[in-house]
Amino acid sequence: MSADDVCRGQCLCGAVRIELRGAHDTGVAVCHCYRCQRWSGGLYATFNAPAAGVTVIGDVARYAAPPLAERAFCPVCGSNLWLRDHTEGAQYELIAGIFPGASGFPLKSEIYVDQAPSYAPLRGDHPRQTAAEYEATNPSVEGDAP
Ligand SMILES: [Zn+2]
Ligand SMILES: [Zn+2]
What we know:
Metal Binding Protein, Guanine Nucleotide Exchange Factor, Chain A; eight-stranded mixed sheet; three-stranded antiparallel sheet
């Protein structure tokens, strides 16, 4: 994708639209932790984009996921939009399913594989980490309680 292209996404009802400009990840990461399963209703699949390239159009509801992150969703239809640290300028972890252009992105990683539901195993040779492996190098942003 060139820098001039705009990648567009929207919630189910269209009240929230998101435009991406410039470089962003073109691979999808899946997190199977209990929090992400509960929030997404199943498969939590996202890709990262720098804050500077993200334009959000429409009102967004935010759940302050304790202690360090927010989870945003459409207040009208409930579509999940992103997870993001509260840190100023933090990148967006965007829900892949609201961007039609992301449907062709390859799966690049799975984390919390030891908490993954058995009903949807994911194929491929991408890196996989258990909760312990992931948390050994990444501080948990929301605490460990399922
Ligand atoms: Zn909506
Ligand atoms: Zn998670």
